Amino acid sequence: MEKRSYFAGKLLPYALLMPQLLVTIVFFYVPAGQAVYQSFLLQDAFGMSTQFVWLENYQLLLSDPGYYQAMTVTAVFSVAVTTLSLSAALLLAVQADKSLRGAGIYKTLLIWPYAVAPVVAGVLWLFMFQPSLGMVAGGLRRMGVDWNPYLNSGDALTLVVLAAAWKEVSYNFLFFLAGLQAIPKSLIEAAAIDGARPTRRFWTIIFPLLSPTAFYLLTVNIVYVFFDTFGIIHAVTHGGPAGATTTLVYKVFNDGRAGGDLGGSAAQSVILMAIVIALTAVQFRFIERKVNY
Amino acid sequence: MADVRLTSVGKIYAGSVPAVKDISFTVPDGGFCVLVGPSGCGKSTLLRMIAGLETITMGEVRIGDRVVNTVEPMDRDIAMVFQNYALYPHMSVYDNMAYGLRNRKTPEAEISARVAEAARILELEPYLKRRPRELSGGQRQRVAMGRAIVRKPQVFLFDEPLSNLDAKLRGAMRVEIKKLQRHLGVTAVYVTHDQLEAMTLADMLVVMNQGVVEQIGAPLDLYERPETVFVAQFIGAPPMNMIELTPTKGLPAGLDGVAGLPLPAAGARLGIRPEHLGVEIDGDARIETRPGDVRLALTVEAVEAVGAETYIHGRLGGDGQMIAAREHGKVLLPAGTTRTFTARREHLHLFDLATGRRIAH
Ligand SMILES: Nc1ncnc2c1ncn2[C@@H]1O[C@H](COP(=O)(O)OP(=O)(O)OP(=O)(O)O)[C@@H](O)[C@H]1O
Ligand SMILES: [Mg+2]
Fold first, then answer.
1. Contact A293 B72 (CB under 8 A)
2. Which of A46, B79, B218, B358 stands the most exposed, by the fewest C-beta atoms within 10 Å?
3. Quick one: DSSP state of residue B275?
4. Strand B66-67 vs strand B58-63: parallel, antiparallel, or unpaired?
5. For residue B51, what are the CA distances in angstroms to A172, B46, B72, B73, B76?
6. What is the bridge-based pairing of β-strands B268-272 and B241-245?
7. CB of B76 within 8 A of CB of B51?
8. Quick one: which of A134, A132, A159, A133 has its CA closest to A239?
9. Which residue of B has its CA nearest to A290?
């Protein structure tokens, strides 16, 4: 059965859509348009004169090895953060779902990180892992691990990945837990009677039924990693050492704000936007088809 | 094949009162046992303990010659049909039925043979490729049955499998289930609160109330000789009329012929089924009175004629309690008329007022 609504006038649907459209136009299309326009401009170092240069900013960008490094860092960073935060959240949600008593406290505790601002999250992690003062860093040193995120690029990337994933775990956890609780208990019982042991039950029943949730979270997480992790990186590593944690979005900021290259920065953000739109489109086209049931 | 033997089985959910208390009975191999009772009486709990989905707090459950108290559900050799069918929504009908066999590493050739056989019996062949959500309620119900029968278990467990179907389909599926169970010869335990289902399906009827067994027996035995007031009123529709007889308080007006009954000093309840109350129609002497018969003078308040029979509701002695009578054919008595209804001595049931237990007479 399909439900349809019929409106009396032709204007009503537009009127109802208006607030949403306005928000989208003001907060997305206008800035996006400005960015595209900016990306065609070149400012001199003092911001005195502006010149329309067509695609020169893009050409410069694509011949800059630092830009390709940022792409690689972003790829590694986003795969690591998404994998880590999704799997950790799923694991926690499964545990919480198993023992629903006490899940209340458990849930509340797990939700906190989400309420923490990215910069604060970054600072928290920095405190723990700061080579000379941090508690965890001290522990690592005593265990003989040579830990220094200021000098070692691997350490630096690990630290921002952990901080970024930690912050996203709560959001993912909530959705996974809701997804798990929406699975009728009798399905799991039927599978148990049908001879599936817990691990098999998880992979053949629970996980497929969670896949729409997982798909949604994957999309949200990718967008998060691409844009929202900026504050964490800024607080923890400033993109260093030697650009090892400079992701695309951080580079946009760095080149535009710090480097004063507004045109180049705008060109970067246009490319970034294109990448995210393309990724989301790919996800919807290919993954959603599989998770539909 | 196996019997199911319960010995003093009890269940206490953590932090609450006992849900099931001291239940013992044996379902013989190939028998069809129906657990019936009002909502919350512990039927599902008992069934789930047999299935292994709830732990057994007290007593012992035996399937065949094995005590299964600590055996995992999958190793009990049972199959269960759930009230909501519990079909796997992301699998086709075929995969739903094959799932249990695949988990047990059955060769793929045998799986397809068994699923094909089940699909043939249940007339599901055209739907094997569909997902559960693309089926009607009745078809889903049959898939749930199919999933149970492909495994060839020793015991079928059903928890209100028909309660989500409309009345007509329920009737049809009831017949199907009975046929299938006879054909396969599998022991069955079936939970319902529908007494028509209970009466028609059971070889062995277990009436439960508040966690205890009220009575166990063949359906017609329970109908004819209910051991307690609860069973008497639970089995049969409309329920059995109960008239309180307390010699010290005097007998209700309009009631005649109870003098010969062995009433205990503390009092008793007299039970008469509506269908056992005969009425004379306009002087036709269909009812010849015999010694020992009980006669009730009822003032008619409502008459419900449904074609094959008529339900008459009247007040005993004009202003006493409401009594229901069920007559064959059309008996259109005008409201306000008073008639004498007769019940045969052998159709009278007598229960102790205090304990609710049957008194022989
Ligand atoms: N998981 C549980 N935890 C605590 N109490 C429970 C649990 N499941 C059932 N009970 C209680 O045990 C009693 C019996 O419940 P049960 O589900 O066996 O009833 P039922 O006879 O199947 O009723 P219905 O006809 O409504 O399905 C009820 O009082 C119920 O509240
Ligand atoms: Mg129940």
1. no
2. A46
3. G
4. antiparallel
5. 35, 9, 9, 6, 7
6. antiparallel
7. yes
8. A159
9. B90
What end-to-end distance do the CA atoms of chain A give, in Å?
A: 17
Query: Residue B94 in 3-state DSSP?
Result: helix
CA dihedral B68, B69, B73, B78 (to 10 degrees): 40
Report ipTM (2 d.p.).
0.84
Provide the residue-wise pLDDT of chain A in tens; the chain has 293 residues.
455 666 667 788 888 888 888 888 888 888 888 888 777 777 665 666 677 777 777 777 777 887 888 888 888 888 999 999 999 999 988 888 876 655 667 777 777 777 777 777 777 777 777 777 777 777 777 777 777 767 777 778 888 888 888 888 888 988 998 888 888 989 999 999 999 898 999 999 999 999 888 888 888 888 888 887 888 888 877 777 877 788 888 888 877 776 667 777 788 888 888 888 888 888 777 766 665 55
CB–CB contact B84 A293 (8 Å): no
Taking the CA of B10 as reference, the closest ligand is 1
pTM of the model: 0.81
Q: Which amino acid is at A257?
A: R
In what order do the strands lie in the sheet containing B187-192?
A: B78-81, B155-159, B187-192, B32-36, B204-209, B212-217
Do you find a cis peptide bond into B18, omega within 30 degrees of 0? no
Locus of tokens 């009503």: A12
Query: Cβ of A289 under 8 Å from any chain B Cβ?
Result: no
From B171's Cα to the closest Cα of chain A, the distance in A is 25
Neighbour count for residue A83 (Cβ, 10 Å):
14
Domains of chain A by residue range: 48-290
Q: Structure tokens of A73?
A: 């860092």
Fold of A48-290: MetI-like fold (1.10.3720)
What 3 state SS string does A160-228 have? Answer: HHHHHHHHHHHHHHHHHHHHHHCCCHHHHHHHHHCCCCHHHHHHHHHHHHHHHHHHHHHHHHHHHHHHH
